Every structure is written in C-alpha cells, then in structure tokens.
Amino acid sequence: MNDADGQEDSLQHIPVLYQEVLEGLNIRPGRERGARRYIDATVGLGGHARGILEGSAPDGRLLALDADPAALALAREYLSDFAQRVTWACGRHTELASLARRHGFDPVDGILMDLGVSSLQLDDPSRGFSFQVEGPLDMRMSDEGLTAEQVVNTRDEQELARVIYEYGEERHARRIARAICAHRPLHTTTELADVVAAAVRRASGGQRERIHPATRTFQALRIVVNDELASLEAALPQAVELLAPGGRLVVIAFHSLEDRIVKQFMRRESRDCICPPRLPMCVCEHRATIKELTRKPIRPTEQEVACNPRSRSARLRVAERVLDSTTH
What we know:
Elements (H helix, E strand, L loop, with lengths): L17 H8 L11 E4 L6 H9 L5 E6 L2 H10 L7 E5 L5 H7 L5 E7 L4 H4 L25 H7 L2 H12 L4 H11 L5 H15 L11 H12 L1 H15 E11 L2 H14 L20 E3 L9 H6 L7 E7 L7
Parallel strand pairs: 1-2, 1-4, 2-3, 4-5
Antiparallel strand pairs: 5-7, 6-7
Helix pairs in contact: 7-8, 7-10, 8-9, 11-12
C-alpha cells in the first residue's frame, strides 16, 4: 500500500518494508498444534502475502482479505502457486473478526494491516485516486458508498474546510474549500487538482511546496470516502482478539493520522492500567492484551526510498499478544 502523496511515480508494485514485515510477523513453519495461520488484511497485489506463504511453508495457511475485488483477482493469479494454502475473502477492515471466524482463522499467529492505497489503485485512472492523470472523482476502494465527486459537490464550504483540515492536515483548507465551492460542479481528478493547486499557490504567494499542492486534499477526500480512520479504530481490537498468545500484529501506516491511532492503541493495550494519573489507585480493571515491540515506528531505509519513492512515508509498528484471562 502507499500514501496519497506517493502518486508522482508510476511504478511496478514493490512491497513496502518487505523484510521488516516478515520479521515483525515472526514468520516460521509449523507448530505443535498444527499449521500456522496468518491474515493479510489488505492483500493488495500479494507482495507481502507471498513472503508470508514462503516463510511458513510447507503447511502455513493465509487468509487473504481486501475490499477491492480487482486487487483480489490479481493477487489470486500472482499467488496461484500457493492456491491450496490461501483462503480468499472480499471485505473491509471492519469485518476482520467475522470474516476470520467464518473461514476458520481464529486464533491466528500473525496479522498484517497494510493501510492506504495500493499501486493498482493509484495507477488506474478510472479509480480517481491520482491527481496526475485525468479520471473520475471516485476514490472508493470498493464499489460501495459515496464517491469523492459526491462529497466535493454536495458538502457545504464549512464542512469541506473541516474535512480538508482534519484529514489532510492542510493549513490552507478554508481557501481550498472556498475555491472548490466557487468552481463546482467538479467531475474529474484533474479539474479538482487544478482548483486546489491554484488556491494553495495564491495562499502561499506562489512558493513551491515539497509535494504537489493537491496531495493533502486528495488524502482527506480518500479518508472520508472510505471512512478509513473509523475502520482502523474498529479493526485494531478485532485483530488483537484473533491473535493466539505470542501472535504478532504488524501495521503499516502512511500518514500521521493513521500512525497516531495505531500508536495510541498499542500504548493503551500494552498497559495494565489506563486510569488518569491523578487517581490514587487503579479502578479501571484494564489488563494488557499486547506487548508493544516498537516504541518508535520502523521507517524505510534510504535505499528502499530510492528504489521505491512511494515507501517514503511508511511507518511500521509491531505488537505481540500476551496471555491473559480472555485469551483463547
């Protein structure tokens, strides 16, 4: 998966932080109670999944999930050599636990959540994720829900400004929202990108930015269209519930909003008490369910970024399930 500001290069899919993911998941074959089981919750084009299957050979099993039917079809072809060990399911992160249990993946030894947008989606103009080529303002990762075109053309100026500021962390959000409303209706990615770029350049006095001026606005719209942050918040506790003791959760985030949610979740769930510091004694009865293995996120090396610029904003965090009274 890749972030919204990684749209500058049309590259062949390269799994981000590949070795770090496999090490984080602690991939290995066999165990006393049978074959190891893993979940790739955003299988994309199957790059990480292949590494999981190779590392867990000869009998490791994988549940490959994705909300995008097109990605599943391509990944199925790419992983055809492992057909007997892969179970396929189309669904969102919010359905993680129900899909896993339906297919017999409970408990599991590892779960990978690779957030953001895949190369497949970025490089297909018809999906509307990229501001570099003209396409419809869609941005949906599945075939359901509102499109970006509907959001852009129906939300009022104040709401658009809020969305762009909160989810895009864009300091020129008000000017951008005003410009969007003045130029509606907008139907294509390039129309929107041109309007946003002009607004940002006026606001910044023509000063060039490190990234394309439309990057943050496109990120914000994509997050809203796919309800990404709420989906992540719902999926993280489901993932922990599915892990066997010693099982690993690996999450790759591509912007600070996602990474903050993952970091706060892992910090909270690795503590035996989450009471406010002012309380003289614990009253929450909260018990740690995981052990945080990465106090700071793992970032791609300079060499990886040089080979794959889309990896540059990736942040990887790892947690391990601990034994408690609720463990399977």
